[in-house]
Amino acid sequence: MKPGRRLIEAGHGMKLTVLVDNSTLIDRYYEGEPGLSLLIEEDGLKILFDCGYSDLFLKNAWKMGLSLDDLDFVLLSHGHMDHTWGLEALTRRLCELRLEGRPCKRPALVAHPEAFTSIALDQCPEIGPLLEPEKLARHYDMRLGKAAQKISERLLFLGEIPRRIGFEQTEGIGFKEGQDTPDRIMDDSALVYRGSEGLVIITGCSHAGICNIVAQAMDLTGESRIADIIGGLHLLSPSRERLEGTVEYLRRIGPETLSPCHCTDLNSKIALAAVTPLREVGVGLEVSYL
Fold it and tell me: Which residues lie closer than 8 Å to 175 by C-beta, 6 or more apart?
């Protein structure tokens, strides 16, 4: 058994397992889809960070021998379908367990309140969540808010991220219900773990901008060391200004490792590799942090 695993089992570290990503690890017989879902285990808690696009996170977890029947938290990074539509499958699963009289927990559901607003994009009338908070409240302990939320002594949900860095400003994606300007996805958030080797920043899509997210994590924790940034960085054919600005920002803060996945294209990964070593991420990855 690895030393890191012993520490985690003793309640002194965090384990992260990738249940859904666009890619799978070589020679691991899981499935991928355009989406993201991570299982986080820390301080005796089981936390699902995003639910992907379908029920694939449940299928992959079953193949890995992992149960999601005893989740303490479900965290949603934002409301887009590739991160929230799997919530319907999880809700069905919890409902079926209760109907059969089998043990399961009632998880807390943490998200920005705007994560549940409908979003239309071009010819698609809905790319936002399928379930409304009023119905979800029958199955989950709803904890919606714009402020940061403490998940454990070392885990913090960042809440609404201030958009302070110029090159990360975007035109928005789609239109939220009741709005006549493109959606800037103010509900986009992230999770930070304060480890012994620095911060581990866990992102869904980084619509707020990964540099903005890192800055907020450092401000809220008072920690400047970055051990890892893992998740989607929303660098899909980014402008030259944005990519160069991101690379320079990350070079300046000096993360020990970068673990980009989901919505990060190959050219961006190549550019980021000039900053620090990159970890290959895909379904089946297990990584531990002290």
Answer: 119, 120, 121, 181, 182, 183
Q: What is the pLDDT of residues 23-62, one digit of tens each?
A: 999 989 999 999 999 999 999 999 999 999 999 999 999 9
* Closest to 202 measured CA to CA, from 105, 73, 108, 86: 73
Q: Which two tokens stand for residue 190?
A: 């992230």
Using CA atoms, how far residue 252 sits from 93, 108, 138, 229, 245, in Å, is 45, 37, 46, 14, 11
Taking the CA atoms of 273, 276, 277 and 278 in sequence, report the sign of the dihedral they define: negative
Amino acid code (one letter) for 38: L
Q: Are 156 and 148 in contact (CB under 8 A)?
A: yes
- Going from N- to C-terminal start, the domains of the chain cover 14-164+183-289
- Mean pLDDT over the full length of the chain: 94
| Confidence (pTM) | 0.94
Strand partners, 124: 121
The CATH code of domain 14-164+183-289 reads: 3.60.15.10
